[in-house]
Amino acid sequence: MPSEEEVWFDLYISYNTTAGSWSTSPLINNAIIAESTGAGQYGVETATVCARFGLQYIIYMGAQDMERQSLNVFRMRLLGAETLQLISQHMVREFHVVIGKETRKHALEKWGGKPDVLVACVGGGSNAMGLFHEFVNDKDIRLIGVEAAGHGTYAATLTKGEVGVLHGAMSYLLQDEDDQIVEPHSISAG
């Protein structure tokens, strides 16, 4: 009989998440699933499926996310997942490219072409990176990142930020007069 944690989440979505992670795993023969998450919901869903099928699972999260989402971290660990601090934004993108690939596939199937405009929330960044990466070279598609406007030090980096470098990647950042990163306030888990 499945535990309460195992039936808590939609297994269809969890199965797809796990299958996507599994297919990108270099250790597929050893059935190790590795993934990243901000809020932890994907992590809990995937940990649920991995627990059900006896698969080893490693989840990467940012240190602040792990603190803010401690209940989800607890659930993942309860289900047998190993939780580690995230070290690479490239890893985040690669785990989420399926969003863009599926969007392209379904657009071609349903409309016979590509979308004109794509909109993604940039609060945590993983959904936007996953969606936009597939379409970034399609100059005829408008990519729109939506963020909380807020005020002061809220995470409105696209409208209030300046180009800077963080962790080796050029991006829009909130910075002080000495070009040092200003920690934004955000309700986003990512």
Structure report:
The structure is a single chain. The chain is of the alpha/beta class and 190 residues long. The chain folds into two domains: 4-87, Rossmann fold; 92-173, 3-Layer(aba) Sandwich (Rossmann fold), CATH 3.40.50. 44% of the residues lie in helices and 18% in strands. It has eight helices and seven strands, in the order ααβαβααβαβαβαββ. It has a three-stranded parallel beta sheet. The protein has a two-stranded parallel sheet with strand order 4-5. Strand 4, helix 7 and strand 5 form a beta-alpha-beta unit. Helix 2 (11-24) packs across helix 3. The longest helix has 23 residues, at 89-111. The relative contact order is 0.11. Its cofactor is pyridoxal 5'-phosphate. InterPro entries: Trp_synth_beta/beta-like, TrpB-like_PALP_sf. Keywords: Pyridoxal phosphate.
